Amino acid sequence: MNWLKELLEKLGLADKYEDIKAGVETNYKGYVPKERFDEINDQKKEYKKMLDERTTQLEELKGKAQGNEELLNKIKGLEETNAKTAADYEKKIADQSFSFALESALKDGKVKNTKAVKALLDLEGIKLDGDKLTGLDEQISKLKESDSYLFEAERSGGTGGAGNFGRKDQGAGKESLGERLAKQNQQSQATENPYFK
Fold this sequence. Notes:
The protein is mainly α and 197 residues long.
């Protein structure tokens, strides 16, 4: 959003950057970057492909090994290893999903330092149910009461966020960005040159 900051500085509205930035963050909270989504999705596809290939190979070997007890025992051992690998990978994916959901929820909750807040949470009491975390809201509410310094202060007033920036339909008595800039420009010209009064 550096381009926005530069534009606002050129327009003499640099002091509005934080309000606009907060509005954009509020409007897009819970957004998962496409790169992160693609990364996890690709990992899952690759794992599924490898698991399917192993299962197919073991089934083929099993058919060829009929009558050979030693080979059948080796295949059984490989199937057990395959099942354990699958369970380990499923746990790893579940842990990554939980961590990502928790990190996103903490950012949405206006946490200043996610690492510090995580250390204070009882992670065993928080469960990921689909894409929703259960047990987190209660813990966050208690932390906001006991350790409010860990959270950003609630904003009051302001411009209403980026959703209203420069729009003419902001309500009666409110001016668009263009109208405000024109008025500001006229005022500055009038004070710079007394002949234009």
